[in-house]
Write a structure and sequence with these properties.
Blueprint lengths: L14 E7 L11 E6 L5 E3 L21 H5 L3 H22 L7 E5 L5 H9 L3 E6 L15 E5 L13 E3 L10 H10 L2 H8 L1
Parallel strand pairs: 4-5, 4-7, 5-6
Antiparallel strand pairs: 1-2, 2-3
C-alpha cells in the first residue's frame, strides 16, 4: 500500500479520514480500505492506496459489471435495461455538444464493458476507440463490439496517433493515480489542442 501525503487534485495536505469500506464490486473480501477527504477542494481519495501495479486484481472476470447474468440471475434483464438507458442518455448528451461524422474519432478512456461505445456505434457514424488497462470487459464477447477499436493499454500509448475529436471518461478519473498528468497527455492527443493553437 502507498501512503499519500497530499491531495491528488490540489496538492493540499489538509485532509481528514472520510470513511472505510470493503471492495464493493469484487468478490467478497474482509479487507477494509480507507478514504480521506480533502478539506480544501473536497476530493475523496483512497489512502493508503493499492500500488498501481496491483490494481488489476480488482478488475478480473469477477468484477461485478463484467458478470451480469452470473451476479444478478433472474434480475439480469433489469440490470441490462438499466445499462441501456444509461448508455442512451450518454449518447444523447454527446449529441448535444458534438456533430459526429464518419471521420470523427471518439475515445472512451476506461471503457470497461464497452456498452456505451456499442450504443454510439449503432446511432452515430464515427471511428470509435475504447481504452482500458484490462480487456476483461470485452474479450469474451467480440461479436458484440464489432467495428470498435478496443485496446488494452494506457493513455501514454496514444501519443503519436491521429488526434481524437471527443474524449469520454464515464468511469475513469476516480481510478487514475496521476490525473493531472494523464489529462495533459489527452489534451496533446486531441483536436482540442489544435483548435486552441489556431485561436
Amino acid at each position: 500500500m502507498e501512503q499519500l501525503t497530499q491531495c491528488l487534485a490540489c496538492s493540499s495536505k489538509n485532509y481528514q479520514a472520510f470513511l472505510q469500506t470493503s471492495a464493493m464490486m469484487h468478490e467478497h473480501t474482509s479487507a477494509k480500505y480507507n478514504f480521506d477527504r480533502c478539506q480544501d477542494c473536497g476530493l475523496v481519495f483512497l489512502n493508503p492506496r493499492v500500488q498501481v501495479t496491483a490494481s488489476e486484481q480488482f478488475y478480473t472476470a469477477a468484477y461485478l459489471p463484467y458478470r451480469v447474468e452470473d451476479a444478478w440471475g433472474k434480475y439480469a434483464s433489469f440490470v441490462k435495461q438499466d445499462q441501456r438507458n444509461i448508455d442512451r442518455a450518454r449518447v444523447k448528451r454527446l449529441k448535444q455538444f458534438h456533430d459526429l461524422r464518419r471521420s470523427s474519432r471518439v475515445l472512451d478512456v476506461g471503457c470497461g464493458k464497452p456498452t456505451f461505445l456499442a450504443t454510439l456505434r449503432d446511432e452515430m457514424p464515427a471511428q470509435l476507440i475504447g481504452l482500458d488497462f484490462s480487456d476483461e470487459g470485452w474479450k469474451d464477447e467480440p461479436e458484440a463490439y464489432i467495428g470498435i477499436d478496443l485496446r488494452k493499454g494506457e493513455i501514454a500509448d496514444l501519443l503519436g496517433e491521429a488526434p481524437v475529436d471527443v474524449i469520454t471518461m464515464w468511469h475513469y478519473l476516480e481510478h487514475d493515480y496521476q490525473p493531472q498528468k494523464h489529462l495533459r497527455q489527452l489534451l496533446v492527443s486531441s483536436n482540442l489542442r489544435q483548435r486552441h493553437s489556431e485561436i
